[in-house]
């Protein structure tokens, strides 16, 4: 609730920040007709601001044109300093309308600024020089907002796509697991039920047949247990591709750019220990590296698996603190770990067969 109120205050504060200028100018008007016209334009401006913040109909151009006409009136008919009211549409275009400068709304806004400048030059060249710094400042704000909000939208879209991909991969994995359980255990349990029923019936009349059935039940139970363990181990391990994508999102949210490259990967790259090794590297980068960029390369050359990690952070001062857990995981793979401090950064190379 507090955040909502703060956002509202900031929005309306930006729109009404300079409203005291036209109000003061309207009060000082010698003509009642001009005073009424000023007040009418001020009221229309306030209504248009409420329209954009509360109703948000970006397709409708009429309120946007009315807004531009109000700003033209403020600037040319009241005070040249009112050109700073353009800070409101400069913010509204990317944030509320979700438009860009190369849209019809952007063209109208830039065109209106150009017309005001041309009118001021024609009416009074001296005032045009006074207005020029304001216009340059506004153009900087307009272009900066356009780029900033566009980059943020791209980031949000990427995150949304990543979330959709994660949900899709989860659904696919859930379906695969259910299929594995059905294929592996469904038939086995049916056989176990039949054989146990048969063993019970044969217990008195044919003990040898009953023992044979019980031995087969025992063998099937052991086989089924192994299959269940395989499925559980598979569930525990996220795929390497999923882990890489999730790691990239985690580091990006922490302000660390992560790039990765994979090629010629064998099946044993999907092992649980390999995925956990990747998690450990990313966790170290997130907590301890102080880096702004991370690069991870994975490959298989001549049957030798290799994982190379590099960052531009502070490096490793004490091997025992940051590498102990990594070395433990590498040992499980019967591999070898080596590291070196860069200027700046850290390089870690891991190899296993």
Which H/E pattern describes the elements? Answer: HHHHHHHHHEHEEHHEE
**C-alpha end-to-end distance:** 56 Å
Strand share of the residues? Answer: 5-15%
Q: Spatial order of the strands in the main sheet?
A: 1-2-3-5-4
- The oligomerization state is single chain
Instruction: Return residue spans where pLDDT drops below 50 for at least 5 consecutive residues.
Output: none
Mean pLDDT: 80
Helical stretch tally: 12
What helical percentage do the residues reach? over 70%
Largest sheet: 5 strands, mixed
Helix/sheet category: alpha+beta
DSSP strand tally: 5
Structural shape: elongated
Q: What's the Cα radius of gyration?
A: 34 Å
What do these coordinates show?
The chain has twelve helices and five strands. The two termini are 56 Å apart. It has a five-stranded mixed sheet, with helices on one face. Helix 3 packs antiparallel against helix 4 (62-78), helix 7 runs antiparallel to helix 9 (240-253) and helix 9 (240-253) packs parallel to helix 10 (272-289). It has helices at residues 2-16, 20-27, 32-55, 62-78, 87-95, 104-123, 125-205, 207-236, 240-253, 272-289, 319-322, 324-332, and strands at residues 257-263, 293-301, 304-311, 336-342, 345-352. It is an alpha+beta fold and 353 residues long. The longest helix is centred in the middle third of the chain and has 81 residues, at 125-205.
């Amino acid at each position: 609730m507090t955040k909502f109120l703060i956002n509202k205050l900031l929005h309306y504060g930006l729109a009404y920040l300079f409203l005291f200028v036209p109000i003061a100018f309207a009060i000082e008007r010698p003509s009642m007709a001009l005073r009424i016209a000023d007040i009418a334009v001020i009221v229309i401006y306030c209504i248009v601001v409420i329209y954009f913040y509360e109703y948000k109909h970006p397709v409708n151009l009429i309120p946007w044109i009315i807004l531009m006409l109000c700003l033209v009136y403020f600037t040319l008919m009241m005070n040249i300093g009112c050109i700073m009211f353009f800070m409101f549409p400069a913010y509204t275009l990317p944030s509320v309308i979700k438009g860009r400068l190369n849209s019809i709304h952007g063209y109208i806004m830039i065109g209106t600024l150009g017309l005001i400048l041309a009118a001021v030059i024609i009416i009074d060249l001296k005032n045009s020089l006074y207005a020029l710094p304001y216009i340059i400042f506004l153009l900087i704000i307009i272009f900066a907002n356009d780029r900033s909000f566009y980059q943020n939208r791209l980031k949000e879209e990427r995150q949304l796509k990543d979330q959709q991909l994660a949900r899709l991969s989860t659904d696919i994995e859930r379906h695969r697991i259910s299929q594995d359980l059905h294929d592996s255990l469904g038939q086995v349990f049916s056989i176990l039920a039949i054989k146990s029923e048969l063993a019970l019936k044969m217990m008195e009349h044919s003990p040898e047949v009953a023992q044979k059935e019980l031995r087969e039940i025992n063998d099937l139970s052991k086989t089924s247990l192994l299959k269940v363990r395989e499925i559980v181990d598979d569930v525990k391990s996220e795929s390497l591709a999923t882990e890489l994508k999730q790691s990239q999102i985690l580091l990006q949210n922490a302000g660390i750019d992560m790039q990765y490259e994979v090629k010629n990967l064998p099946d044993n790259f999907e092992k649980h220990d390999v995925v956990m090794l990747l998690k450990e590297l990313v966790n170290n980068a997130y907590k301890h590296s102080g880096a702004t960029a991370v690069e991870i390369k994975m490959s298989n050359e001549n049957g030798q698996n290799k994982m190379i990690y590099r960052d531009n952070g502070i490096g490793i001062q004490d091997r025992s603190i940051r590498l102990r857990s990594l070395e433990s995981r590498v040992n499980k793979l019967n591999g070898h770990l080596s590291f070196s401090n860069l200027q700046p950064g850290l390089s870690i190379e891991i190899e296993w067969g």
